[in-house]
Structures are given as structure tokens and as C-alpha cells.
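PROTOCOL LOG
Step 1. Enter all chains and additional molecules of the complex.
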Amino acid sequence: MPRAVAVRRVRSRLTPWLFLSPWIIGFLAFTAIPAVLAVGMSFTNWNLRFDPQFVGLDNYAEMLTDDYRFWSSLRITGIYLALSVPIYMALGLAAALLLNQKVWGIRLFRTILFLPSVLSGVAVAVLWLLLLNGDAGAVNSFLRSLGIEHPPQWFDDPNWAVPALVITGLWTVLGNGAIIYLAGLQNISPTLYEAAAIDGAGAWTRFRSVTIPLLTPTLFFMLLTTIIAGFQVFDTAFTIGTGRGSGDSLRFYLIYLWEAAFRDGRLGYASALSIVLFVIGTGLVLLLLRTQGRWVHYEDGN
Amino acid sequence: MTDVDVTGLDGPRAFTPVRRRTGIGWGREALRVVLVYLGLMALSALVLLPLGWMLTVALKPDDVSVFTTPPEWFPTTFFDWDNFARALTDPARPFALYLFNTVWIEVFVVLGSVVSCALVAYPLARMDFRGRNVVFTIIVLSMLIPWQGLMVPQFLVFFELGWYGTYLPLIVPSFFGTAFFIFLIRQYMMSIPKELDEAARLDGAGPFRIFWSIILPLSKPALAVCAVFTFLATWNDLLGPVIYLNRNDQFTAAVGLAGFVSRQNQDFNLLMAANIVTIIPVMVLYFVAQKYLIGGIASVGLKG
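Step 2. Run joint prediction.
Step 3. Record the structure below.
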């Protein structure tokens, strides 16, 4: 084989890897190495002041037996998930069904409804902090006008802080979810509805027997992302602050992780918290993926 | 090719009302339309009224209470546009500077993200080589990793590099590709006819030339989705800047706004003015690039 051909062949073998190299370097530097580092650090008392020492499983033991903030942050995240997942999924679908109707001006309504989904968690939190003001906020003055004399104090009441955050999140999530549901709805072949209608199926039967089964991939995706988002609540809760009248009631898991690492400087302990987050998150995703065969209906060829 | 409907929301299959052939008549149809409009208007009110209230508060003078019963949803009495200037130039919280900082970061992040994602997506979409499927699978799986779980060790890496207190930890990672956008752009590049590469190769063009002159221009819609979402994510990011920035004059708009709240101050009119100021660029982007935004979100659900 002539030398020039050999050189060219080697070069053409290398070409794709040259294009891939940014991702490979980035994956190693920002994902793979930090992941290994996180596991290692979680067995140390790493902080930025002293030389780290190996402490074995102490961090994990402390978390499980001697850290009420760990448990309370898990509980808060759990309550948030229990409230947000059904509410966000159901209302998102309802909004999408509405936006899927053929009426004049529907594009304008879509534009309006999707708007909050681009706003930042901080901006939305700032706005809703005032709208949900206990004394004179718009929401409570509306509730009082309905005859509710003592509406909730929302962010100033530990028991109502998490529901208040669910409402805050709903405002942005609704549009986002509606877009995804809408795309799913419009992917359903109209011939199926026509066939169902010819068979005499009413609106409700069509919804139950055509829309819902064919929308299960989208529903599954939304379930997955809503749950993951629940574990990643940070911006809104951070902005509204853990030090308000709501006390510690908004210390979500990620907030606590941030506090442990960057306020208390306990990087080793925070790494252990990260590992637990990772295990819980990955476990939930795997669990959901396993149930998917039972209820998620994929059309042939997808 | 450049004006492909990436939203998919108004394709031929959109708007497919199912008219019942049993013919109950237009009375039911009229009722449906009325109910739909009522629902749509209620939803729109839920979105627009808070925004209008925010503007009302932002335009109030300092000595007027922001709370009224009933709430004022639209500015009618007070129009202190000066509040915006005050929010932008307040020496303690200079939002003009925060906005400038954020834009500065955006320039690098958006550029880096688009270029690197396109580079990585190209061989995955249009070259045959051993190991391609392995790399692609790893990229897809890495989307499931919650990166927040890595914020502590990543912090340590950047801290040891001496990058704490600079914009580098916020900018540099974007130059190495983001799994989700690599995936999105790759899917799009797959749909470009292979004959174009073949013809260019016969004309003597190398792989980089084909990438630059043929594939990249044809991938514009996907690149736009990547750019728009990267811009939004960066603009709205709080966690990253909160971890890595430690000086007031470095802050991004999101950090400045979050700090504004936690000081327990009562300057709600200025707070709302600042909030509006940080929201405006995002809203402008929303109206300009709506097609890509909605298309991007929609494709997430369909392809994810």
C-alpha cells in the first residue's frame, strides 16, 4: 500500500474523533472525573481550610442518624412531589386540551399561555411572593372576597409554604407542560377519532379510549420530568428564602445540599448528600422505566 | 430547508376537529365554542393579570402602598417611569451592570454551545465509524445524570484551577457540548440528504469543508433551537452564579434579583421594576423566536 494512501486512511479514521473531541474532553473533565471525585470526597471530611481526612462512612452515618435537616429536606421534597406531580400533570393536560381546540384566535391564546414558561424561577418567585402576601396580597384579597375570612398566610406559614411554592411553580410549569402535551395530542392521527366517532363514541369515550392511551408516551415523559424537577427545586425556594416566617419549611434537598457545601463549607458531607441524591434520582428513573412497559403504549415504528 | 416548521404544532395534522356525524346540530357546537373561549380567557387572565399587577406596582411612587383592595391589575393612577432608571442605577444594586454582565456571559455561552454541539453532532449524524453507537449511547444516557449532584466536585475542580470568583466556570463548560442539544442537532442533521455530502466529496471537499459549507447552513433551525434555549437557561440560571460569583459587581441579573429579596427590604416598587427589567430581554426573545422555542419544547416531548 502506498504511503500516501495509508496516511490518508489513518487521517480519515481520526476525523470523526476530532469532531467528537470537545465532548469527550468535556465529559471527562466536567462529568466523569467529578463523579469519581464525588464518591471519593463523600468518604472524607473535606473542607477548604484543612487537609481532608478519610472518615469512612461517617458522613452517611451522620446523615441517617443525626441530621434532622437531611430528613426534613427529604420530607419537604416528598410533600412537594406529592402535590406537584398530580396537579401539574392534570392541569397541564387540561390546558393542552383547551389549546388544541379549533377556535378563532387560538394562536394568540397559545402565545399568552406559553409566555410564563420562559421566565426565570427568580423572577416568578419575586412576583408570587407579593401576590401571595398573607395580609394584602392579591390572592388573599380574592379569597376574602369569596368569604374566606382567614386565608392561608402562604410563605409566612410553615404549613403553607410548600403549597404556596407549588402554586408559584404552576404558573410557569403550566405553559411548558401544555406545549409538550399539545405536541403529543397533535401527533395522534385524526383518523382514529373519526373511526371512533363513526362507531358512536362520545367525547368522553374518545378521550378515554383514544387520547389517553395514545398520549401515554407523553404522559410518561411528563411524569419523569416532573419528578426530576421536584428533586431540583432550587431557584424559587432559594429566592423566597429559608429564613422567612416560613422558617425551615422551604429547605428543599438541593437547598440543603447548597447550604452544607457553600455556607457551612462541608464539601465532604455535601458530596455524600450528592451521592444520596444521585442514588435516589437514578433509582426513581429506573423504577419508572421498568413500569413503563405496563402502561405506556408506543405506536408501531416509534 | 431553512424555513422548516420546527414547531410541528401547525402541521397538516393540526386542528382536526371531530365533527360528529350524528348531527345534533349547531347548538352543541356553539356551546362548545363558548366554553372553550371562557376557559381560554380564564387561563389568559391568570397569566396576564399578575404581569399587569407587576407593572402597576413598578410604577408606583415610594410612599404609596403596593397592596390595594381590590388589587389594581393595570396601571391607572401612577406612572413613575423614573423607578426603572432608579432600579437600573442604584449603587447598591446596579441592575444595569448586572444586565451587562449577564449579556457578556451569554455571548460566550451561546456561541460556545452552538459551535461545540454542532461539531459533535456532525460525525454522529453523517459519518460511519467504529464506536459511533457507543459514543451516542453514552451521550443519551448522560442526559439522565442530575448535574446538580456534581456541583460539589465540580466546584472543587474549578476552585483548584483558580477560577472561583470569575466567569470561567459559567462559560468554559459550554464549549464542550451539551448532551441534549447534541442529540437534537444530530437528529436534525440526519434528515439532510446524503447526496449533498457525496457531491461535495466528489468536488474534492474535505469533511470539515462539508460540515462548514453544507451541513451547518442547512442545520440552522436546530442550531437556533440550541441558541435560544442556551440563552434562556443561562439568563435564568441562579445556582451556577450563586456558587461561583462572590462580588456584587460581577453578579448576573438573576443573582442580583434574588439578593434584592433576601434583604427584607420593602422597596417593592423598585423590586418589581428590577424584575421587569430582567424579564424584558427574555420576553423579547420569546416573541422573536417563538417558533424555535415552542418547537424545541415540543420536540423534547416527542423525541424524549
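Step 4. Note key features.
Residues 89-303 of chain B form a domain with the MetI-like fold fold (CATH 1.10.3720.10).
Chain B touches chain A through 105 residues (CB under 8 Å).
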